Structure formats: structure tokens, C-alpha cells
């Protein structure tokens, strides 16, 4: 039987850019000791106290169908967290709980776009973006953020990609670790206002900011009414496997998103929501503790790579750093492949995140400090040898 063109075309065809990741997994399965710096998975598991809250909720009977938009208590707690972090008045009616930020990204585009509408997103980008937009029936259109601008999008480039119904932005950014400053967000906001675009703001890394502050576009003058914020406890609370996130925005849009959950996911398990409520009630102290290793390793990585002469994208956030390996003359893919073959170190080629990050590597800071230090030193030496050969 023929499947729909929409599902057949979901990934856009061609290689998906994750060959290196799969090769590293294969090597590990064969018993090779690979230093795994590919995906954004914490090297600690969900805190035992959160698991105990999950167990107690399930044992207490919260195992039936849960409230579909999310429990009142969790929606209220998420709203309070958003209001505390951004100053924007937010109530539970502005929030729908979703199975992870991923489901919120999908919901946001269904809310914003009709079939065939153009939905913009910034390249480099988190790998699921184009497929998520296509799953929602829209046309995925990239706007390149140039390496030379440290991957901050240029509002003029966004304008050049119009017409569109929405623009998806991700700050703090995966893969670059860059936080958009006020001027960048003002520029994006101006284009959005002038051309009546929705802004989908993916803020799942909002607790991983190492200097300066994270600014949500929803907090800028006149943007709350056109901004849909994607949030998640995956990164902030090391709860990637619990699949707990949210979409926040104008009440009417959220009412429609709730309607969508009724007809797609049918909500999030009640015991997972209760675990999330418990996690949020532990406040900023827990978020800071979970972020602490990445704060430390980000500083370590910037220091080790820069002092060895590897150019690093100046970044102030996230559990990743991006190295610019163009002086070696190799693509990110070729470099990463050779690094894996010769030194059993796995990093993601920049090309996995779009064309704009070609010739770069994304390094996830997800192993113990001493192991990371050793791997980065090896990577830098490898880079310098190739660079000399290229000269
Ligand atoms: N957005 C970005 C930028 C991400 O990196 C991720 C996960 N790696 C997600 C969204 C989705 O996260 P989750 O569905 O686990 O909340």
C-alpha cells in the first residue's frame, strides 16, 4: 500500500547526518571503549527523589487517564516558573503539558501553520526541526545563520525567506551554545510583527546559561500575543526519558493545542506529571545542581581547545561546544569519522545540524571532566596535525 507523500517525505530524503552516531553505537556494542560526546544526554540519571515521587504517585493510584491539558497543579507550577523567569503574567490557561518539548514543537506548528504554509527555522538547527514542521503539514524553510556572525540570525536573511507563517528560534541554541542577545531578538520580533508571523521559541536549554541572561522573545514588548514557547524538564531536570514538556502562549492558541492533544497524544501519564511537579517544587537549587557539571565542563572545553589553538564558537550556554575545524581542510563529517576511527572519540559533525555548521564539530559535554579533558586534548592535537598537513 502506498503511504502518504507527507510521511514518505518527512525527513526530506538523503542522508540524515547521524551516520557517525550510529557507527559509535556499533563500536560500543562490539566492546570498543568509545568516548561518547554525541548526544545531549546527561551522565547522571533522574534524581532518586523525583523517582520516589513518581513511584509514590503511581502507587497512590495516579495511573488512570490523567487530566488532558495537564494537571491543574502542574500547569500552575509551570506558569509560575515562566512568570518568575520572564516577568510575563502567565496562568495555567497559557500552558498545555506535552510529552516532552518535541511534542510541543509539533503542536506549535500545527497551531501556527496551515498545510502548505512556509515555516522558517534557523540553520544550524536541532535535528528534528525540519521533520517536525513537515509532520505538521507545513513547508520547512531554513534561514542560514552564518558562522561569521557567530551563528546569530540576521533579520534581513529572515525577511529574504518570506513569505511564511512562523519562525522557529532556539536560544540557548543547540548545537552552537549561543544565546541570542536583545538586539537579535528585537530584530526577529520586528520582522514577525511586520509580517504577522508566529514566533516559536524553543527554550528547553533555559537553565544552561553560563554567563549573561537568557531572554525569552515572549517577554519583549508586543510579542507575547504571537509567541509560542516550547519548554521541557528533559535538560533542566535530567528527565529526558520521562517525556515531560509544555507549550506556553496566548490562551486561545493553547486552547487549540489542548484540543490537539485530545486527538493525538491523549496527555502525559499522571505519575510522570506528579514527578515533574515535585521536581519543580524543589526550585532553582536542583536546576542549578543539575546544570553545574556542564557549567564547569563548558569552561574547561573553551580553555583546553582555545589554548591548544582550536577555534571555538564563542558561546555562553548549553551542554555543547562547537569547534571550527575548517583550517584542517576537512569537512566536519570527514574529521569526525577519522577521529572516531583513530582515537575512538565520537563527536557530531556540524553538517548533522544543517549546512551553516559545515566544517564544525558539536562536542557534547557529557562525560566526566578528566575524560573530557583527555579527549579534547587528543582532538586538539589531531586538529593541529591535520592543519599542518593542510598548510
Ligand atoms: N529542542 C532542542 C533544541 C533539543 O535539543 C531537544 C532535545 N535534545 C528538544 C527540543 C526536545 O527535547 P524533549 O522532547 O526531550 O523535551
Tell me about this structure.
The chain has 391 residues and is α/β, with parallel strands linked by helices. It has two domains: 5-45 and 285-382, Aspartate Aminotransferase, domain 1; 64-282, Type I PLP-dependent aspartate aminotransferase-like (Major domain) (Aspartate Aminotransferase, domain 2), CATH 3.40.640. Helices cover 42% and strands 14% of the residues. It contains 13 helices and twelve strands. The protein has helices at residues 5-8, 19-29, 48-59, 72-86, 100-112, 129-135, 155-160, 182-194, 251-263, 270-281, 283-307, 332-343, 369-390; strands spanning 35-37, 95-98, 118-123, 139-144, 166-170, 198-202, 227-232, 245-248, 311-312, 320-324, 345-349, 360-364. The strands form two sheets. A seven-stranded mixed β-sheet has the order 2-8-7-6-5-3-4, with helices on both faces. A hairpin with a 7-residue loop joins strand 9 and strand 10 (320-324). Helix 3 crosses helix 10. The longest helix has 25 residues, at 283-307. Bound molecules: 4'-deoxy-4'-aminopyridoxal-5'-phosphate. 4'-deoxy-4'-aminopyridoxal-5'-phosphate is lined by residues 40, 100-102, 126, 170, 174, 202, 204, 232, 234, 240, 245. 4'-deoxy-4'-aminopyridoxal-5'-phosphate binds at residues 40, 100-102, 126, 170, 174, 202, 204, 232, 234, 240, 245.
